[in-house]
Structures are given as C-alpha cells and as structure tokens.
Design goal:
heterodimer, A: alpha/beta, 2 domains, six-stranded mixed beta sheet, four-stranded antiparallel beta sheet, 12 strands, 21% strand, B: MetI-like fold, elongated
Chain lengths: 302, 288
C-alpha cells in the first residue's frame, strides 16, 4: 500500500523542482535521511538534535536542505520539535547537537537575514501598523531617512492590502489582519529566508484560505525561500514544494526511540496551483492520503 | 430621574451627602443655649464672683469646634492671599504647599532615578531578582519615619532629611513594579527584537519600556500616594516649612479652623496628584 502510493507520487512528479539528494531520498521511506548534500544548498541542517532530558531527546539526527526560492513545510504532531527546529533556524534557540548553515555560514544567533512570522503575530500593541513595520525597517536600515522608511513601510503594507488600516493599533484589527501585518513586517526587512511558525493556526478557515493565497502570491513574486510549520495538510500541499514529516519520540519494546525526520515528501502538483482548483489536480488525493496516513498511523511509531 | 445619566445621579447623591454632612457639622458645633438658665437664682454678687473666677455663667458656652461657616471664611482668607511671608511662623499656604510639593517632587524624582534602572536590572536578570529579594523584603515594611533619626544624624539637615524620607518611601513600589513589569514582558516581543538585531539600549527603550510602562506607572502612582501621606508626618517632625508644619503650628496656636482648612487642602492636593498619574497611566496603557 505504502509503495503503491510512492509510485503514484513519483509518477506525478514531472513538473516539480529539481531535487536535491535528500529530496530524492524522500521517496525512499527513509526513517533517517541524514546524508548530507553538497555545500551548494542554501540552507543546510546537519544531524540536529534537541534533548531537554539527556536520555530522552525530543528528536535526533534531523538533516535536510533547502534550495534558494524553495517553499518547505514541516508537519508533525505537537511536541515533535517542529518549533524547536524553526527556533534554531531563527537563532532563538540552540540545538543540543548538530549544525545549521545558511549561505555557507553557521547560524549562531538571530539575524536580520532571516525574517520570522510568529504564531501569535507578536505585533507590539502600543504601536500602530505603520510604527510596527517602521520599527523593523529602521532596525534593518538605521541610516535611512524618515521619508525613505515611510515609503518602504507603505509599500509593504500595500502588499498585504492593509493601507486603509495603516494607522490603526493592532487591537483594532481582526486576527487575519494582524497576521497580515506580521507577514508584511517579515517581508519588509527583505530577509534571505522567511520562517513561519504556524502563522495561520489561530485563524478561521475562510480567512486562512484568503491569506494563504496572498502569501503564495507574494512568495512567488519575491522568489522568497520559506520554511513553514503547519498542522494543516491542505495548507502544506497548497504552499510547499516539499513537505517534511516528523515523528514524535516514543517507547518501542521498552526502549525510548527519539523523534526525528521520518520522511520528505516532494509535492508533485504543478507550482502555479490555487486553492480553488487544488483538489481537482491529479495526484492531490494520493498526496493528501499519504500525509494523513502518516500523521494518523506512523507519526508516533516509525 | 430614571433617564438621568449615571454621572449626574452620582453627582446629585454626592451633593446631598455633602449637605447632610455640613448640616450635622453645623449642628454639633453650635453653642448650647444654657446662658440665661444658669444665672437664674444667683445674686448680682454671686455672678460677679463667678466672673472674677473666670467662669462667666452668662457667657455663651462654646464646644470649641469651629462651625463650617468659620472654616469657609478661613478658606477664603487663605486662598485670597496664599503667598505672603511674614517671618518663619507666618507664611501663606501657597508657600507652605510649594515647600511640601518641592520636597515630594525632589524625593520622588530621586527615587525614580534609582528605582527605574535598578528595576530594569532586577527584572531582566533572575539572578539579581533572587539576590535583591531579601533586601527589598526587609527594607520595604520599614515605616519611612523610622529612618528620620538616622537621616537627621547623617545628613544634618532637616530639609534634606525630609527629602530622604520621601525618597526611601517612594522607592519600593516603583522598584518592585518596574522589576515585575520588565520580567513580565512578553517573550514574543523580545524575540521580535532579537530577530531584528535590535541593540540592547534600543531594545530597552523601544520594546521593554513601553511594554512594562503600565506596570511601572502603576508603581509610580502608588509611590506618589505614599509620598504625599508621609510628607505631612515628616514635616510635623522636622518643622520649619510645609503643609505638615503648618498643621502642627496651627495646632499649637489652637486654631482648629486653620487645621481643618489644611486637612482639606492636603486631601485635595493628594487627589490632584493621583489624577495626574491616572492620566499618565491612561496614556501608556495599551490594549492587546
């Protein structure tokens, strides 16, 4: 059953992006895709591990790469360490073992080169939308004149369609609008890479759909490299070029098996897809079933 | 009546209570009408004798407590010329008030200069939080006036000692609230600052300060309330100038009219100070 799915997935692979080693290995049902790729990969994660208790690491041996312009989603149950991985990439957390490189340099702390969109939008409530984004822009380019900052801010607020609310405080905005501002803020510093920590998790389905479309449009336009956490299988299929599936740590035969990267699924659907026609695309259901099957039956026991 | 606004109705009830209070005061302060009855049955010689003994039976007996009208007159007199200065024991109430406010202001600002930076350090470092805790816990409950002898001895100046007492009583609420506010700043906002590579000073001023401002200003408001309570007592002790000294001086003069006037004034000024901080609080509060 499993290999059937893989064959069908591979059959539909034709228009996908060029694959790296790990991508190719993604289809091989590898529980431990730890082989490293050439240094040319834009983002490279090598044998990352995190342990809060020495003998029971949350995950071990997580290795993967991202190419420039790629959109990669990571899916897994709560507690599998997705957010930890994202925080390590953001430089906000440190791993117990392993390394992360971006552009050939090791990630050793937070940097303006990586924009982060937080799950809870993390806008400063005492600042207006304009001031929130201006704060980021001024941090990125401290020498800019006020007019230059304002022009840049307005451009990015317009990008997410919120010019009419630019002088409002976050408390006056809906959840979707706040998250749009968070996205505009992340884009405004023109980072080399964007990290999204389940940005739409708290939104209702309709709003989520709209913002997903907007985000996809912006990412395609800007050729942004994106790493995103999600719980929503359809969201991952719609947005990403590849989907990383993570398993939780668990007991097996009385022995603790740490979680890790269980599988990398390449999205075979054409890149210029849209939410409305997504479920009509050939290969969509096979892909969706495969991921859901993983989450239901294998995520805790690989 | 039913359609009257709540504020208007509350104002009406307040006014009624005020009038009832004034009435009760006027009645209790009125002289007892015993004069003519007391002289009955006395000969002229007996009355004369009583007068010589200082117990005039015909005189109107007073409770000694001034009626509201007298206090009203005193208020008008004091406020009509608040800034006169006729020597050390006779200064206008405006001058006395200015002295008190200057002491409170100076002590409060000094306390702020110490409490805010120190509160930042304590709030940002769990180590400092634990290290400072025993000192704060022991020093905080000490009545500010208990410091007075030590202050007088070491500072050798009553005026400076008064300022020191205000300083020492204002510092604790500000310090504790600043430390708490800074420690409670949302992780998300600090993470945003980190990912934007914001320098420490800019982070403190543009992220932590506004985030903790509502808590800090609450601490300042509590401090100001305590400072205004304490200044009256401190000035009674050290003497010289100020509203507290004015109260004590008028007590020595047995002028209850002036004491009542001063008490009311202390209340009104305290309220105005609190209102000012309430405004400040409103200005820095944000809705999440």
């Amino acid at each position: 059953m499993w290999s059937d799915t893989q064959d069908r997935l591979r059959g539909a692979l034709a228009p996908a992006l060029p694959m790296s080693d790990v991508q190719a290995r993604g289809g091989e049902h590898s529980a431990n895709p730890s082989r490293t790729t050439a240094m040319t990969a834009f983002l490279k994660i090598e044998r990352l591990a995190k342990a809060y208790q020495q003998d029971r690491p949350v995950f071990t041996d997580v290795s993967f790469t991202l190419d420039k312009g790629e959109f990669v989603c990571i899916i897994g149950h709560s507690g599998c360490g997705k957010t930890t991985i994202l925080n390590v990439l953001a430089g906000l957390d440190t791993a117990s073992a392993g390394h992360a490189f971006m552009d050939g340099r090791e990630i050793a702390g937070p940097s303006l080169e990586r924009g982060v969109v937080f799950q809870s939008h993390a806008l400063m409530p005492w600042l207006t939308v304009r001031q929130n984004i201006a704060f980021a822009v001024q941090s990125r380019w401290p020498d800019w004149r006020a007019a230059q900052v304002q022009a840049h801010v307005e451009k990015h607020v317009a990008m997410v369609g919120l010019l009419h609310a630019i002088d409002k405080k976050p408390s006056q905005l809906s959840g979707g609008m706040k998250q749009r501002v968070g996205i505009a803020r992340a884009f405004s510093i023109q980072p080399k890479m964007l990290l999204l920590d389940e940005p739409f998790g708290a939104l209702d389905a309709l709003t989520r759909g709209t913002i997903q479309d907007e985000l996809m449009g912006i990412v395609r336009q800007t050729q942004q490299t994106v790493f995103m956490i999600t719980h929503d299988v359809d969201e991952a299929i719609l947005l990403s070029d590849r989907i990383l599936l993570m398993s939780n740590g668990h007991e097996e035969d009385g022995r603790y098996v740490p979680g890790g990267l269980a599988e990398v699924v390449v999205n075979p659907l054409p890149r210029d897809r849209s939410r409305a026609q997504l479920h009509h695309l050939p290969g969509y259901y096979a892909l969706r079933n495969h991921i859901v099957d993983f989450l239901v039956s294998r995520a805790r026991a690989h | 009546m039913k359609h009257m606004h709540l504020h208007a109705r509350a104002a009406l009830v307040s006014m009624l209570m005020f009038l009832v209070l004034l009435g009760a005061w006027q009645l209790s302060a009125s002289p007892a009408a015993v004069g003519s009855a007391a002289t009955a049955g006395m000969t002229a010689e007996e009355i004369e004798y009583q007068k010589m003994m200082g117990k005039d039976p015909g005189a109107v007996k007073s409770t000694g407590f001034p009626p509201p009208l007298d206090v009203g007159k005193a208020i008008v007199t004091h406020l009509a010329d608040p800034f006169y200065d006729k020597g050390p024991n006779d200064k206008g109430i405006g001058i006395q008030l200015a002295h008190s406010l200057a002491r409170v202001g100076l002590g409060f600002v000094l306390a702020m200069l110490v409490a805010l930076p120190l509160g930042f350090v304590i709030g940002m470092s769990p180590l400092m939080q634990k290290a400072f805790d025993p000192f704060v816990q022991v020093l905080k409950p000490i009545s500010p006036l208990a410091w007075m002898p030590l202050a007088l001895y070491t500072l050798k100046d009553s005026n400076v000692s008064g300022i020191f007492v205000i300083f020492i009583c204002s510092i604790w609420p500000m310090l504790i609230n600043t430390a708490f506010g800074v420690a409670a700043v949302k992780r998300d906002w600090l993470n945003v600052a980190s990912t934007l590579e914001v320098r420490p000073l800019r982070k403190a001023l543009r992220v932590i300060l506004p985030a903790a401002a509502p808590t800090i200003v609450t601490g300042m408001r509590i401090s100001m309330g305590i400072a205004w309570l304490v200044i009256v007592a401190a000035e009674m002790l050290v003497g010289g100038t100020g509203v507290g000294y004015f109260v004590w001086n008028e007590w020595n003069n047995l002028s209850l009219v002036n004491v009542i006037f001063a008490v009311l004034l202390i209340g009104v000024v305290g309220m105005l100070l609190d209102l000012a901080f309430a405004q400040l609080q409103k200005a820095v509060t944000y809705v999440e």
